[in-house]
Here is the input.
Amino acid sequence: MSAAMKDCISISSRLMQQIEQYCIAHLPYEACGLLLGTEAKPQTEMPLFVRRFVGIPNTAANPRRHFVMDPSVFIPYLFVPNPSHESIIGIFHSHPSAPPVPSVEDLQTSWIDVPSHWIVSIQNADQPEWQAYRYEKLHPNESGSLTRFKPLRLITTT
Ligand SMILES: [Zn+2]
Here is the structure.
């Protein structure tokens, strides 16, 4: 797979609108959930492809500033056999009053191995801002930073 394709992820604009509506409906709290779809296919140069999203209740103690996905709701998606071969290819959460940049807490995620991490900023609800990232765990260094994040390029389809 070309390096460029590895840094891409595909999603339909309609699905993005549905996720934006979900996030706006949960204001003033952060909304979160899973993105299900198909893995990248190196042999055909197909990038990660998001097919649908599943909203997961946010059980954080302070849901205005953090998100914790309710395990009783997301765990079945990890284990239930899936006839359409969908896998969890991303997680998303909203930033009700901040730009779509990972916070320190976001980078301490236990979802590090998920191939994409999406932030929907709805600080301007009329004009949501999206950014998807790939997170990579680094060895501890002098700055104490353990996670590096790299923006992914969105390929939107209609
Ligand atoms: Zn965040």
About this structure: The pocket of zinc ion is lined by residues 93, 95, 103, 106, 119 (CB under 6 Å).
